[in-house]
Amino acid sequence: MEKILVLAHTEADGTLSKPALEVIEGARALSGDLVLGLVGEKVGPLGGVNKVFVVEGPEFAQGRYATDAAAAEAICRAAGASIVMAQGTSRWMRALPGVAQRLNGRTDTHVMAFNGGCATRWFYRQRIEAVLTRGERPWFLLLDSGLPYKEREGEAAVERVAVNLPPLRTRVSGFAVPKTEQQTIRPDAELLLVAGAGWTKKQKDGQAHVEEAAKLILGFLAASRASLGSSKSLVDLSGEGQAVLPFLSHLNQVGQTGATPRHPKGLATCCHGEEPHVVGWRFIQERRAINLDANCGWSRGKADVLYVADAFEVMAKLNQMLGG
Ligand SMILES: Cc1cc2nc3c(=O)[nH]c(=O)nc-3n(C[C@H](O)[C@H](O)[C@H](O)COP(=O)(O)OP(=O)(O)OC[C@H]3O[C@@H](n4cnc5c(N)ncnc54)[C@H](O)[C@@H]3O)c2cc1C
Question: Check: CATH 3.10.350.10 for 3-160?
């Protein structure tokens, strides 16, 4: 039987992130001896596993290759696991391939699912799905997704692992992050609002109304705290020198060559609902769309509700109702 270790690090506020907990949940569904490895300044107890290996201390609060790799290596050696699973955070993506090298193991990144023997991942921008297996151990799997986490009763046996750190040359002096009102991608939001290229197209008066579109979209995001997604056509416009919505980038793009976000609800506006876009909605449970065209892609079984209406009018009314 495989011995499975799930590695997780705490976030800036000392808690484990939702995706990190989801990897733990995914590992629980596998048959194997499951242990956890937690790294952070101070980590809390977690129920529902046999054993937790803990590396704690102020040096481990921030992401840094030297400390993250040393902590993960010490835990992997103490746990003696054959499979090591972790969320594909920037910290683990940077440190774990090096740890696999130190332990003569192998790493696979962007893993979507793991059934205990085979890992599944996409290649070539989600056009080819591959199922991989490896003979080498330890096998490190950096996952892009997991299962919804459920809390468990009970306390696991905790083993504190000592780490011999090398001299530290990297000092974390702070973070540079965009202002919150500019932060339009909110993975934990209840709702995804998708903006399509229709927002920039000529409307019934023969004119484009890009400024008004920007005001309506940003007003809705501020009032609803929704996350903002986009179609490829809309984010590509900036490269084509057309009038664009300045707060959108390719990071907002949802679809085959974009992101596959996981919000409970989605509302598409001025977006045609073509297949390469809608494949990015596969984890969105309740889907609605607003389009002038009753024959758009959303009407072909891709949305639960299609409002055949002018999105400028609907969003203005919605913002008014939300007090925006
Ligand atoms: C290999 C490949 C990969 C691709 N990957 C992606 C991807 O990852 N993501 C992606 O999005 N696309 C992707 N595409 C492109 C995709 O096929 C579509 O071209 C794109 O999604 C269309 O964007 P859109 O719906 O915003 O624009 P359009 O097709 O221009 O549609 C605009 C819509 O807005 C509506 N509209 C206009 N004004 C209003 C109004 N006032 N009120 C309501 N509705 C209005 C129109 O009726 C129209 O339906 C890919 C294509 C290929 C070939």
Answer: no
